[in-house]
Amino acid sequence: MPDNIVSLPMRRKVGRPRLRPIADVPRADILAFPSARPTLEQKLADYDEAIDACLRGILDASRALTTLCRRYPKG
Question: The pTM is what?
Answer without folding.
Answer: 0.48
